[in-house]
Design goal:
This protein has 651 residues and is α/β, with parallel strands linked by helices. 47% of the residues lie in helices and 13% in strands. A hairpin with an 8-residue loop joins strand 6 and strand 7.
Length: 651
Amino acid sequence: MESKVKKQIEEMYGKFVGLPNLKPIVRNGIKGDAFTLAILDIVYSKLLNFVVEPNNIDKISKIIVAPPDSGIDLFVEIDDGDEYFYDIIQAKYSQLTENEISKCFAEMGRTIKKFLKDPNLVQPNLKEIISETNFSESYRKNCTYYVFHAGELNYGKGFSKNEKVVTIHEMETLCQSTECIESINDAKVPYDEFKSDAFSNYILYDRDAEGEQALLCNLRGYDLAKLCNKYISTSLGRNILFGQNLRDSLNAKSKTYDDMKNTIDKEPTRFWHYNNGITIIAEELDAQKDDDENVDLIKLKNFSIINGAQTTSALGLYLKNANMYNNDDAVEKLKNVYVLARIMEVTNPNLRDNISIYNNSQNPITSRDMVSNRIEQRKLKENYAQGEKPNIYVEIKRGSKIPPYPKFEKHQRTTNEELAQLAFAAFMSKPFYAKDKKSSLFNRDYSNDDVIINEYYHQIFFYPENSGETPGILFSKSREDIDEALFIKYLYKQAKLKMKKTYETRIERTSEKLRELSERETDATLENRMKMSLRNKEINNTCMFYCITLYYEIKKEFCRSEEKRYFDYEQFYRGEQDCEYKKKIIDYFADNFLSQTISIISELLDGAGNVANWIRRANSQEAFLEKLNNQIALDNKLERMYCDFVEQFKH
C-alpha cells in the first residue's frame, strides 16, 4: 500500500514550494522541507483547528520555522486557559540513529536556553516565531521536545520524559486512524493481529447480535509489549493503542510499574495470576486457527485497549529497557508472561462509551468523561444550547462535535471544565481555586456522602431535582450571566495580545538602549525598567482568572441591578476587521481592567519572586482581594472605569 505520509509530502511540496515569499518554508528542489508540513497537518491540524493549505500560509509560518532555524523546525503553542504548553520539534526526513536523535534533543535544549537568555542569540526566523507566542521562563517546564524522523527507532537510553521520538510509521498509523474520526481522543489502531497462547484456548461469547461478538483468551506479554512500543509516540505523545482509554499509560517511576517489573523478573509465570487483565474494543474481530504455528490468530480492525493501559505500558517499558541494554534474559522472561484479555467487537458508539466508563469505574479517575452521562451534566448542556438567545454550547465530553445550529459565537463555545473555572473566578471570587481545582474537580470523594462527586463539584454543578435544595452556581445563574462571563474571558485573551505587544515594544526599546552602553557602563534605571517590563509581560500572560475576578468584584460594587445591558456581538464579530467597536472595547479592557490587575500583582510581588509561583500560591488570592477591595473603597477611578465601560460598550 502506498505510504500516505510520503504521498502527502509530495503534495505539500507541490503546493508550498517557495512559500511564503522571501522566507520559504519549502525551498525549491528540497522536497524534504515539506516533511514539516506533513507533521503539522497529520498531528496538529485538528488540535489547532485550521487546514494546512497555501491560503493559511500566514498561520503556518507562525509555527513552522523557515531555514535557517537554529535546530527547531516547528514551535507549537497550546493554549490551556492561563497556562501554555509548547511542543518543540526537529524534523529529519531521514533515518536517525540513537546518537543522532540525542544530538537533536541537545541542540533544541541549547537553543531554548539561548533564547531565554537573549532572543538575539538564535536565528531571526526562530526568534520571530517564538516572540509571537507567550513563551517565557515560567513555561520552560511545559516544553515537550520531539524528534520526527523516517527511521524505525522511537526510543533510546537516557531520553527525558519530555523528549519523545515519532517515526513516519507512527504518523502513517495516525493518518489512517484519524481519517474516519472527529477527534484525536477517539483514535484507534487501524489493523493489527494477535496470537493467543500456545494452549490454543479461547472462549467465544456470541449473542447472535450483529456487531457484538466477543472472546476471552490469553495473550503473550511479549506480543503486547511489542504492540505497545509500535505505537508508543503516535498521537502527540499519547499511545494510539490507548486512544479510547480514559486513563493514560504509566511511567517508569510508578510504584505499579515497579511491582509489575518485579513480578516479571522473579515470577514471570505468575503474572497471569496477579494481574486483572486487559479489555480491547474493536469494530471488527476475526479469530481463526493459524495451522503453521498451531495457535489462534486474532485479527482486529479499528481497535483500542480501553482498560489495561497500565499493564500494557508496563510490559512495553520492560521490553524497551531489555532491548536498550541487550538483556536477552529479560526478553525470555517476558515471553513467559501471559495476560488475560477480553476482546469485544462493538459497533454501537453508546455501548462502546459505556464499556469504556464501566471498565474504568472501579477506582476514581481524573476525567470529565466519567461524569458526562450524569443528569447535572446533561441538564447543563441542554439548558444553554436550546431556547432563547444567547445560545451557549457546553462540551461535556471530550471530542464532541459542535452542531451547525443554532449559531454559537466564538466565546459561546465552552466546556463544563471551563465553566467551572469561570464560576470560581467570576461568581465566587476565587481565582486561585479556578486554577488549583481543575485537576481534581471530577474526582469522586467517597468520604463525603452529602455531596455529589466532591465538595467543589457540588458547589458548581449540583442540579436539584427537589424544591428547596440549593442549586450549584451554574444552575443559579442566567444565560446572560454565563454569556457575559465567557465574553469577559474572551476579552481578556484579546487584551492580553495587545498588552503583550506593548511590553515587547518596551523591552526591545530598552534593550537597544542597554546595548548602546559601553562594556563598562551601567544604567540602573534602564536595567530596572527592563526587569519590570519582563515581569509585567509574564503577569499579563498568566493572570486571566485574577483579571476576571477583578472585573466582577468591581461590577459587584458598582453595577446598577435594575439595568439590563448587553454587549453588541453583531458589531464585535461581524463588523469589518478594523471595527471601531471591537478595537475600542479591547483597548479599553486592556488599558483598564487588565492593566489594573497587572499593577496589583506587580505591587504584591514587590520586585521579587517568580510570577508563576505566586499565581499558584493559595495566599496570593487573599492578598489580591484585600488590595483590590482597599482600592475599590478608597479610589473613585475604579467606579468611573466600570461605569464608562458600561456606557460605551453595553447597550
